Amino acid sequence: YRTLRDARAGDEIRVQWRSQGPDDQPLREASITLHPLSETLGSGVTLSVGSILNSVVMPLVCIGLGFWVVAVRIRDRSAWLLLVLLLSLAAFVGGGSGPMGFFGQDSALHELSVVYHVFFANIASAALMLFAIAFPERLPLDRRFPWVKWIIAGHITLVFSLAAIDVAVWIHHLAWARRFLQPAIQLLTGVEGDFGAAVQAVALVICIGSLAWKTFTAPSRDARRRLLLLDIGATASAAAVLVMLIVARLEAR
User: In terms of CB atoms within 10 Å, which end of the chain has fewer, N or C?
Assistant: First the structure.
C-alpha cells in the first residue's frame, strides 16, 4: 500500500503470487495498470460533499456531542455509554478508506490509530446493548441478572480487542499474527465467524427488546413519548448493524 500511495494513474505495478496448495506451486507474475480512483468512485461536487460529510463532519459531530454529554453529566453512566456509542459511530462512518487507511503510512502513531479504529468501529453492538439497558432507568431484569450483559459485552470487547491488535501487528509481522492471534480470535468466534456474529446479533436483539419493554411500561405518557423517539433512532441503528452482520455472513459464504 505504500507503493500505491506513491504511484500515479497510468503507472504499472508488477506483482508476484503463488497459488494456495503444495509448496512447489509455480511463482506467477502479472502487471497491473493503475487507473484514477475517480473511474471507480466517480467525481464531482456531490462526491466531494458526500466524502467531506462522511469522513469529516459526521465523525466530528459524534465526537463533539459525546464528550459534551460526558462533560455535562460526568457522573452519569449512561453518558459514558453514549460516548462509546458515538465514538464507535465516528470510527465506522469515518473509516471509508479501507486498507489504504490502515497500511502504507509512516506515522509514528500508525499502529495505535489502527488499534483505535478497528476496535471502536466494531464495538457498536455492545455499546447499543449496554446503553439500552441503562437508559433512562436500569432495566428491572438486569437488576436480577446483571452478569448476563457482561458475558455478551465481554465477549464482543475481547474479540475486537484481539482483532484490533491483530490488524496492527499485520503491518510488520503478518506471519506472527496469522500464527498466534488469528487462531485465538477464531477460537472465540468460530472459524467462519458465525458464533461471533451470533453474539453480536443477540446484543442487538437485547437492545431493541430493552427499549421496547421500557416504552410499554413507562409510568407516564410524556416518558413514553420520549422513549418512543429514542426507540425509533436506536432501533433503526440496531437493525442496520444487524442487517450488515447478516449480509457479511452471506457474502462470506
Answer: C
More confident residue, 43 or 242: 242
The Cα 162–Cα 233 span in angstroms is 30
Cβ atoms 197, 249 nearer than 8 A? yes
Cell of 23: 509448496
In angstroms, the first-to-last Cα distance of the chain is 27
